[in-house]
Amino acid sequence: MKKTPDDRITLDNVSRFYGEVLGVNRVTLSLEPGITSLVGPNGAGKTTLMNLITGLVHPSRGNISVLGIKPSQPHRLFGTVGYATQFDAFPKGLSGFQFIYSYLKFSGMASAKCKRLACSVIEQVGLEDAAHRKVAGYSKGMRQRIRLAQALAHDPRVLVLDEPLNGLDPLVRAETIALFRRYADEGRHVIVSSHVLHEVDMISDQVVLMSGGYVVAEGQIQNVRSEIKQERPMQVLIRCNQPGLLASKAFEQDHVVEAQLLPEGGAVLIKTRDADRFYRSLNHLALVKGMQIDGVAPADDNVNSVYEYLIGGEEVSR
Amino acid sequence: MTGLWLTQILAVMRLEMKKTFFAKRGVWVYLLAFAPVVLYLVHSINNPLERQRLEKIATDHRVSTQALNSIKEGATPDEVIEQLGEPYKKHIDSHRRGDRDYEYGSLRYTDGEVDVTMRLYDGRVVRIHRRRLDNLQRSQTMFATSFQFYFLRLAIFFGCVGVFVNLFRGEMLDKSLHFYLLTPMRREVLLTGKYFAGLLATVVIFTSSTALQWFAMLWQFDRSVIADFLASTGGAQIWAYLGVTALACVGYGSIFLVIGLLFKNPIVPAAIILLWESINPFLPAALKKISMIFYLQSLSPVNAARDGNMPPLFSLLISPTDPATPAYAITGILLLTLGILVIASFLARRLEINYSTD
Questions:
Q1: Are residues B115 and B58 in contact, defined by beta-carbon separation less than 8 angstroms?
Q2: Shortest Cα distance from A105 to chain B (angstroms)?
Q3: Residue ranges per structural domain of chain B
Q4: For residue range B240-293, what is the model confidence (pLDDT) as tens digits?
Q5: What pTM does this model have?
C-alpha cells in the first residue's frame, strides 16, 4: 500500500502537563501503519500519549494529526479511530450487546446495521454467550474483551489499545494478537501499550520506548538496537562443536569486545560492535576451520534487552 | 448532517433518560418535587373536617362575625365574655414575676368560618389570631406563595442542581464519561443531547408535580365550584403555572449544566446563584433582569402574598420594578438560556478525561 502523509499519525513537539506534573514532554513521532507498541514503566506517559492521540486530553503544546485529522474533531476522528481504554467503567445498566449497539448508533447507522455489526464484533471477541448479560456482571477478561469489541465495532483504520491483552486467557490472547496482525497487514494502524515485553517483541512492527514522559527511542526494534551498539555491543549466541576455537578466533577481531564460553558447553556468547562483520567472519571460520555451526541467534536484539539498556531496571513485566 | 445530529441527540437522550429518571442518587429530587402534593393532599383532607368542627362549635357557642370583629386588642377578658358570651375554649393561668402574679391565657371563638384565638396577658387581650378556613380565593394565593417561594426557588432550583450537574460531573465521578467522548459526535451535539435528556426529566417530574398540586388543592371543593373555576380563570392559571414550571427547568437547567462542566464541587456556585436569586427583590431593575426568578415571577399568574414577618427595614429595601410582559419574560429566559448553552458548548469542546483528579 502506498504511504502518504495522511497514512501517518504524527505528533509534533507535543507536551502535556497536569499542573506541575509532567504527562509527556516534547514528543515528536511519525507513526506508519502497522503494529506500534508503546513500552515503558508505569507513569512513563503511554496512556497520556494515547489519550492525546484520541483527543481525550488536549496537548499543552504541539500538534497532533491522525491520518490528517485533528483530535479536536471527534466527529471526524472517531469514524477512523477505535480506542479501547483502560478505564473500567461503563454506562450503567447496559448489556454487552446494548453497549456496542449504543456506541454504533452514534455513527448514525441504521438500527439493523448496528445490530448486525454489534453481533459480529461480539462474536469476534468471543462474547456471544454473554452478550445479553449486564456488563457490570462481567469478569475482568470479559470487560477487556467488550472494550476491545467497542474499539473494533466500526471497523476503524486506526486502533488504539491501552494494555489490550491484560486479563485475557492464553487462547483469547493468541486470537487477539492474530487479529492485530491481520489489521496491520491490511495497512491499518494498531497502537498498543503493553508491559509484557515478550508479547511486544512478538507482535510489534515498531516500538516507542517511553520513560518519565519522554520518548527514549522509537522505530523498528532492530534499528533501535543497532543505534546503541557502541554503548551496548550486540550479543550473539553461537552453538557449535568447537566453542573454544571460535572464542579465540573471534577475539582476534577488533570489533569483538567479549567472547564468553557458556557453562553448559557447546555455546559461546560474543559481544560485538559490528554484527554484520562478525557474521561474515563466522562464515569464513566455518569454511576454513571446518567448524560445525549448530545455531546462531542474536541474544539481545529484542525489546526486553533494548528496554533494559535504555530505561534500566524500572518496573516492567517480562 | 442535521439528520445525523438528530439521531445522535436521540441516542444520547435514550441512554441518559434511565439515569435521570431512575438514579438512586436522584430520589431526593422526587421528594423535593412531590412534597407539596402531599401537603396539599393532607390540607384538602383536613380542611373539610375542620370546617365541620367549627360549624358544630358555632352551633353550640353562637357568635356573629360582626361581634367577633368588634373585639380589639386591649379589651379585658370580662369585656370580651360580656360581649361574645362564653368562649368554646378558655385557658387562663398565672405566673409570678418579681412580687406580682401575671395572668395569661387565651379565649377561642368561632363563627363557623373563622377560628379566632385571643391571647391574654396581664388581664388584657394582647393579640388576636384569625385563622380562616380555605376558600378558592385563599387557595389560589396560597398556591402562588408556595409556588414562588418554595417550588421555584427551592424545589425546581435544587432539582435542576441534582439532575443537570450530574449530566457531566456525575459521569466524571463514575469514570464513564469517556464512552461518549469516544463516539464520532460533536461535543456540542453531546451537550445538546444531555441537556434535552435532563430537561425532559425535570419537565416531566416538576410539571407533573404542579398538576398534582392543583389536583390535591382543588380536591376539597365541590365539583361544581371546581368546574366554574376551571371554566373561568382556573384553566388558564394552571396552564400558566405549568408553563412557568417548564421554563424554570429550561433556565435553571442550562445554568447547572454549565456549573457541572466548570466546577468539581457544585455546592458553592449553586449557593451563590441561590443567594443571587433570593436577593432579586432588593436589586436595582437592571440587575433584576440578569436572573431567572425575575422572569419566572413575572409570568406567574397570581401574585404571592407578601411575607408578613419581613422586618420593615427589609420592606423598604425592596426595589419596586414592574414585572416583565409575558413575551418579554419568555424571550428573556430563552435568550439567557441560549447564551448559557453557547458558553457550555465552548466548555464541552475543551472537556478532557482526567478521572484521577476528579
A1: no
A2: 7
A3: 2-48+135-349, 61-132
A4: 999 999 999 999 999 999 999 999 888 899 999 999 998 888 888 888 888 888
A5: 0.82
